[in-house]
Amino acid sequence: MPQQRLAQRLHGIAPTIFSEMSALAMRTGSVNLGQGFPDVDGPPAVIAEAVRALEGGQNQYAPGLGVPALRQAVARHQHRHYGIELDPDIEVVVTTGATEGIAAALLGLVDPGDEIIVLEPYYDSYVAMIQMAGGVRRPVTLRAPDFRLDPDELRAAVTDRTQFVLLNSPHNPTGTVLTRAELQAVADLAVERDLVVITDEVYEHLTYDAEHVPISTLPGMAERTLTLSSAGKSYSFTGWKVGWASGPRELVQAVLAAKQWLTFTSGSPLQPAVAHALDEAPGFPRQLAAALRERRDRLCAGLTEVGLDVRVPQGTYFATTDISALGWADGLAFCLALPERAGVVAIPHQVFHDGPAGDQLVRWAFCKEPDVVEEGLRRLAAADLRA
Ligand SMILES: *Cc1c(COP(=O)(O)O)cnc(C)c1O
Predict the structure, then answer these.
(1) What residue ranges do the domains of the chain occupy?
(2) How do residues 175-222 score in pLDDT, each as one tens digit?
(3) Ligand 1: residues within 6 Å at CB?
(4) What's the CATH code, domain 8-42+284-382?
(5) Distance in Å from the first CA to the final CA of the chain
(6) For the Aminotransferase class I/classII large domain, which residue ranges apply (predicted)?
(7) Mutate to test the pocket of ligand 1, among 200, 228, 292 (most ligand atoms within 8 A of CB)
(8) pTM of the model
(9) What torsion, rounded to 10 degrees, do the Cα atoms 235, 236, 238, 239 define?
(10) Residue 309 in 3-state DSSP?
(11) Where does 58-281 sit in CATH, by number?
């Protein structure tokens, strides 16, 4: 399609790096340590529930808010894990993955010219949806080597037009889990400046050396926080695209107001299955995290052995390396050379940055079977990775 046929609201937004790199992995027969999806599905009992719903006639439109069983299960989940009280009839809405939650939240809440503070490196859909909503992103950078949130940088990003903070913790791609003190800095600012916080917590259960604290549990935050999550990462069903948004009625209503024109409702038969997962397999995400922790450790050790400077993540599917030790200045060039050099695909951080802070950083996924991680490491060890 000629560029001039693309609406302005999409100008300058590159195609998602994940499609590009996964296609490259397929084409070159590479081990895909790029895109973050597991290669083993979630609990069979949950799949059996989905089959039951499909065969049992739950194949027509679900209610716009989502099927009651799932909204109730989400409310129970938030209470069980975090002590959060939600009314499932007005404070929870089911979305088509967290991706639609992000889209509907931004389209439903942001007016043109509103500024949104967003952690950088950012998940790529934030940038696209902020732009489609007419908002202006104000990145606050989590900087190597530790990727912590600097409260001074956060404050410096605020202007008279700031309306929102878009948080992500556990954070993709750095693996940072924001501490209570870091979250408190965000909360202090939000209360002082009357900001709404939209928080993407899809990795809430995939933490290793740190505890995930939902920012909505901090004093004064419940009434100004919209929390997004999904079954994709917690239950290894990334292809199901069942997510949810929860929080005060006004914010949930805004999500629903946009969501009704995006998808109207989300997949009926998968919703009762996810309700079953949340209620009947509440221990699954922790078991998954324990398995992922071993793969994280193996991947980080292997990447260190091949001469990369590794940042061990506290959460998510991903580890980050600095490639400058191997003489590289540009992560994208490194990642484009990697399939041919080594038969491995990884993701450059720089596509998630406005500035140069991520130029020498590369993200590697460990949400793969142990033999896949081992094969990737074997190939890296056998290759010449120097610039
Ligand atoms: C995977 C991911 C999402 C998307 O979640 P879905 O439920 O698959 O739509 C959103 N945010 C972050 C940070 C992610 O890594």
Answers:
(1) 8-42+284-382, 58-281
(2) 999 999 999 999 999 999 999 999 999 999 999 989 999 999 999 999
(3) 97-99, 123, 168, 172, 200, 202, 230, 232-233, 238, 241, 243
(4) 3.90.1150.10
(5) 36
(6) 31-378
(7) 200
(8) 0.97
(9) -100
(10) strand
(11) 3.40.640.10
